[in-house]
Amino acid sequence: MTGIDSDSNGVRDDIDAYISQVFPAEIRQAATKAAQVEQSMLTVDVNDKDAVRDINNAYTRANGCIFETARNKDLEIKPYFVSKQISAITANTKKRLLAMVDFSHASNGMVFTGQLNGNCDE
User: Fold this and answer.
1) In terms of domain of life, where is this protein from (predicted)?
2) Is pLDDT of 62 > 90?
3) Is the pTM of this model over 0.85?
4) What's the structural domain count of the chain?
5) Residue 120 lies in a domain
C-alpha cells in the first residue's frame, strides 16, 4: 500500500515526481512534508488513538505550513489546491482510499487547532 519510496524520504516516488513537476520550488518542501504525513495515515494502527492524534496534529501543522509558505512568499498557487492534490494522489487506489476512510473514522470526535504562523518550524 505504501508504494515505492526509493529515496526513503517517506513519500512515494510518484508523489515526489508530481510535487517536483506541478508545484513551484518555493512550496515543494511544505508539500513534501504534507505528503509524508498523509502517507503515514495509510499505515498507522487506527486503534492507537495516540498515534492517530499525533498524525492529525502533524497534518494540521503540515497544511498550515503550505498556507503559511504560500502567504509569506506571495505565491500565485492556491494552497488549498496543493493540499487537495496531495490528498488525491496519496489515496489513488481503492485500498489506499479505504485506509484513509479508516483513518478518518478513527479521528472522529478528536479536536485539533492550528496556528497562523510557525507551522513550518520543526
Assistant:
1) Bacteria
2) yes
3) yes
4) 1
5) no
